[in-house]
Amino acid sequence: MGEVVEVLVPGGKATAGPPLGPALGPLGINVKGVVDEINAKTASFNGMQVPVTVVVDDRKNFTISVGIPPTTALVMKEAGIEKGSSEPSTLVAGDLPFEGVVRIARMKFDDMLSYDIKAAAKEVVGTCVSVGVTIEGRKPKDMLAAIDAGEFDSVLTE
For residue 158, what pLDDT is reported? Predict the structure, then answer.
C-alpha cells in the first residue's frame, strides 16, 4: 500500500522543516520535490493553514491531495482580518459581503452536512458568529433570519 502523511501547512509556504521534513525523510523520497508541488498546489490559500495528504507508494512515487482550509480561515480571509474578535458577541472584527458567504459555502459544500447551498450559507453565517464578523453590516443572527425569510433566495439558487 505505502505510507500516508497528513499535515497542516501554510498555504504556498511549506518548507522541508517540520512537520513535512521529519515525516517524509524516512520514506526515501525527494522532499524538495514534494514541498515544491505542495507550494504550487496551495499558493491560492496564501496565509492560511491548509490540510495536505501525501501518499507514497512502494516504488517511492508520491501523490498529493490538498484539502480546503477551515471555514473560519476562509471567513477571516474574505473579511480581510488577521484574527477573530476576542468578544464575538460585542466586538466586531470585520465585515463580509454576502457574496463572500456564498463563495465560501460553494467552496466548502462537499465537506459540509448541508443538502443545499442555502443551508451551507447558513453554516458559514454561523461561523461568522463565533469569529465576530458581520455580514453587510448586519449581525449574523439577523442574517440567518433574513436568509430564512427568503431575502437572498435569488443569490442562493444553484
Answer: 56
**CATH topology of 3-66 equal to that of 71-156?**
no
Cis amide linkage into residue 88, ω under 30° from 0: no
Query: What is the residue extent of each domain of the chain?
Result: 3-66, 71-156
pLDDT digit string, tens, across residues 63-111: 999 988 889 989 998 999 988 888 888 899 999 999 999 999 998 998 8
Closest by CA to 53, choosing from 63, 41, 39, 68, is 63
Distances from the Cα of 18 to the Cα of 5, 21, 34, 54, angstroms: 12, 5, 14, 15
**75, 35 contact by CB (below 8 A):** no
Q: Any idea which fold 3-66 has?
A: Ribosomal protein L11, N-terminal domain (3.30.1550)
Residue listed under C-alpha cell 440567518: 144
